[in-house]
Each structure stands twice: as C-alpha cells, then as structure tokens.
Amino acid sequence: YIQIKKINMFYSKLGLTTIKENPSDAEIISHQLMLRAGLIRKLSAGLYTWMPIGLRVLRKVENIVREEMNNAGAQEILMPAVQPSSLWEESGRWNEYGSLLLRIKDRHNRDYCFGPTHEEVITDIARKELRSHKQLPLNFYQIQTKFRDEIRPRFGVMRAREFLMKDAYSFHLDQDSLEQGYNLMHKTYSKAFERMGLEFRVVDADSGEIGGNRSQEFHVIADSGEDAIAYCDEENYAANIELTPTLKSQTKTIKSKQRKEKKHTPNTKDIASLCKLLKVEPKDTVKTLLLKGEKKPIAVVLRGDHQLNIIKAAKISGISLPVTMADEKEIKKSTGYDFGYIGPIDLGLKIYYDHAVSEMPSLICGANEKDYHFVDANFSDDLGNPDTIDLRNAEVGDPSPNGKGKLSIARGIEVGHIFQLGTKYSQALKASVQDDSGKDVPLSMGCYGIGISRIVAAAIEQNHDESGIIWPENIAPFKVIIIPINMHKSKKVETAASDLYEFLKNQNIEVLFDDRKIRPGIQFADAELIGIPIRIVISEKGITNNQIEFRSRISQDSEMLSREEVIKRIIS
Ligand code: ATP
Ligand code: MG
Is residue 3 predicted with pLDDT exceeding 60? Predict the structure, then answer.
C-alpha cells in the first residue's frame, strides 16, 4: 500500500488553501473543518475529492483497518465496483434495494449497478471456488469505493453517495463456526477503533435490507450523530434505538373516574395547538397515525409525546414497505374523515396500540370530526381494552429491556456494522460445500463493513476545539509541523529548520515543513486548523539561545527546549 513516510512534504507544494470562515452549506463541525482545512473538496452532491492532507488521513484509517484484518487472518481481494443485474436478480435485491441502487446500462443495453455492497459478488466467488468444508472457514475483504444514491447526502463524507468502505465476508460450514468468525471480527473492529483513538460503543442493531440474524453496530459517540443509542451500563445493554424494545408496565393503571366527553377544539390539527387550547401536556393525548397498508391504511396509536419506531412498525402484517404515512387524500378516502382529527373511536380501520397507551389514566384523542376531540376517554371502556404492542422509540428513563436498570440515550455515528447473514445469500445463489459425509450444505456467511471515509469525519466530530482539528496521533496526517519564522530573511533559521526536517524525515517521522513566505500568525492558525499533533517553531531568537519551541496540539502548552530534547520528545 501507499508509502507515506520518508517523502518530502513542503507546505507550498500541497496546493492547499485553508478557509477562515465557515462554509455556509456545512451544518456539522467535521464537515466545516474538513472544508476549511482543505481535506476535501466537493464535486457535486455527495461526491468529494480527497485532497493531499485528507487523503493521508484516509490512508491511515485504511491501513489500520487493513493491518487488523490481516492480523485476524482475513485475505484481501478486490472485486469489481460495477456488477451485473443478473446477480442481483438471483438474490432478489434488484427490486428490493430500491432507489439507493445506482443502475447503469452498457452499450448493449444490459443492466448493471454500481456496487453499494458486495454480498452477491462474493457469493458468486464462493460458489465457484469453494467445494469442500476443508477449505473453511475463510474471510475475504476488500477496501473499495461504494456508491449509494442516498436520498439526502449530507455532512460531507459522513453521508456521501460515493464513499470508501472496507467490506469483509466470511464463509463457514455451520453456525458455530460462523459465531466464532463473527466474534473474531467483533474483536478486530474494537482493536482497530481503539488504535484510531476513538471513543466508541458496540450496540445491537437491525439487519436492514442486508438480511440475516444477529447484527451489531460500532458507533463513535458524538452529539451530531444521526443514530440514537439506548444503553444501560448497569446491565451492559446497548442497542440502536431502532431496535430497543419498550416494555409493558407491570403496575396496574388507576383509571380516571371521568366519562368521555366531546369537546369543540377548533384549529387543533397538531398536538401542540391542541395542548395549548386544552392546557394539557402532549403525554395526556394520543396520536393516531395512518400508515399505508397493502389494501387500506393501518392505524397506529401512540401517546402524544412518543415517537413511532419505523423498524417496529415495519413488522406489522399488511403494512406497505418502506413505512410511509397515508396522505390527506387517502385518509379522507378510506375513513371519510378529516386529517388532523382522526382518533381510534369508530375509526373503521385496523388499529395497533402501543403499550404506553394502555397505561394512561385517561386520554385525549381525535373525535373523527373536524374541530372536535374527545377528552377523558378511557382505554378499557372507550377503546375496548385492546391488546397492545411495542411501537415506540425507547426514551431516557425507560426501564432497560432486561428489567433492572434504566436507559440512557446517546447519539452515535455508525462507523462499522457486523452481521451474521446465515444462509440467505448462499441459498439464493446456491453456494454450497460438501461436509465430511459428502452431503452438500449451503455456506453459512457473515458480513462486516467499516465506513473508512466516514471515520475521518467521525474522528473530527470527537476531536476538535475552536481553532480546528485535534487528530488522534495514529491517524494524524503528519506527526510534526515545522514552522520556521521568516525563513526567507534568516539563513540561520533556514539551516536549523531544514536540518531538523531532514533528521526527522530520516527517522521515519512524518513531518510537514511550512516553507511558505507568509506571516507567522497565518502559519500558526493553519497548523492549529489542520490539527497536527506537534508544532515546532524555529525563530532567529530561539536559535541564538539554542532553543526551539515545542507545542502540543492537545495541551496547547509551549515549551522552549534544546534540539536534543525536542527530538527526544518527538521520537518517544
Ligand atoms: P447508514 O445506516 O448510516 O445508512 P448502513 O447501515 O446502510 O449505514 P452498512 O450497509 O452497514 O451501512 O455499511 C457499512 C458501513 O459503511 C456503515 O457502518 C457506515 O460506516 C458506512 N456507510 C454507509 N453508508 C454510507 C454513506 N452514505 N457515506 C459514508 N459512509 C457510509
Ligand atoms: Mg449499517
């Protein structure tokens, strides 16, 4: 792989322009800093060029992942980015994968896609190459560009359309071996993220359209993360909120003695305006959402302050996938009622209730009549005491699914995902091996992804201050930046700086030499923005006193040291 050491690195040759102001289209800090520090440049929506410094970081991340995969005995391969539709038809995903899949045609009008992932291609390899259980277990991986036509590419390389992924696929004779391979990847990922200096959490996850059984995600903890993670340290529980169950309360609800009453509530199509008018809290109300169903819409009823969990809703039988709200027209057509005042009483559609609704002493709901709501309705008397299911997102303070502690919630950036696929792809594509009795058995498979390019952004989300990026040492583009002050005016400064630069370079230290003829203030600001861990400043005055300034990006402490001491600190 790319040799990043012992090459000359002069700032003036980087073609780098840093930007002082925050670019207006960058919403999160890592995107702002990546643009400001010149790590990436945008070509078009979700498409980015990696500029020299950015690419060095990307390669560092890539190489840590590669080393850890190699340590785990996985074999690196490289599959084509472009894949024929026929394979995707065999797995059934040509239709299933939807608009994320970039479909392309060749000159013969044949269908291809730009690979968003490679389960089909690797399974094709396996069915052609593997014959006997004696060849197993095996793990193949690649580090390669993927394309997903994301509906909302955003946050720069965090959610891009073209991005770099490490994807690995393991093959086993049976579930036991698959579990071993899966656990090994779990360890390998943890090791890789630790080496990158990232604070992360492993959480139980939904398997999404990849399919299969067990799956876990690796999340870098950051406030800007798109995912919510529910965890309970007391019980060692952590799961993506998508998957976190909410429990039915064991304590009996004491129902209110009031009787249901219809109230005139003009202009209260949403919960906020209803609560304002009735002087109640959202938790006193219920919302009735109509989701598109295969035939008619399906109603789900949740407490007004709770959030519908889409993954849980997707498991309702007869629901249309992906889960979508019915629109006003459909609502009118299937119920005859007006949007905004829909409620469960006499709705005339199949209704699913969330557990929490049954725990409300009384409830406020739409009366299925424009400008009217019921107040003091009762779950057993007015709704008929129906069965309830788990439909909502877990919230802070909910009991942990294991029953003892309480849940906390953090935001995370998904940087890795490991799956036990089982035989989903091997059965669809007929990839089998002979076991020791000579019988054909479908291969058990695991798949394991790491978002290499997303990690660069995630690392910045976790490591920055108001002046710029603070790279964890193992993924920093350079270890040291040397800033000679007014070098063009002082031969002494130039000689001292060049000597130190050559010396460090020959010691295999990655060092950037700021040879620009500009004001020191700009040099300092750029060094902080780019986030190089160690800054060395060489000035005329310092040299005269045999001293060099040493400054750590993390601690921000400057010290005047001898050349020997500086070298010792850098090399240690
Ligand atoms: P997400 O939920 O963020 O859309 P995913 O679950 O669809 O991701 P996987 O199929 O698990 O993604 O892909 C493996 C890894 O690739 C993810 O864990 C993530 O780090 C990275 N990744 C996925 N989509 C993108 C993207 N659009 N841009 C950058 N990295 C991505
Ligand atoms: Mg994923």
Answer: no
SS3 track for 30-73: HHHHHHHCCCEEEEECCEEEECHHHHHHHHHHHHHHHHHHHHCC
306 lines ligand 1 (CB under 6 A): no
Q: Which ligand is nearest to the CA of 415?
A: 1
Nearest residue (by CA) to ligand 1, atom 16, is 451
∠ CA 144-150-153, nearest 5°, is 95
Q: Where are the beta strands (DSSP E) in 123-199?
A: 138-147, 162-172
**Closest ligand (CA of 205):** 2
Residue 124 contacts by C-beta under 8 Å, 6 or more apart in sequence?
87, 429, 431
Nearest-angstrom CA–CA distance, 433 and 436: 10
Cα 177 to ligand 1 centre (Å): 26
**Which pTM was predicted?**
0.90
CA distance 258 to 262: 12
- Average pLDDT on 489-493 reads 94
Long-range own/partner contacts, residues 17-23 (CB < 8 A, 24 or more apart): 18/525, 18/526, 18/529, 18/530
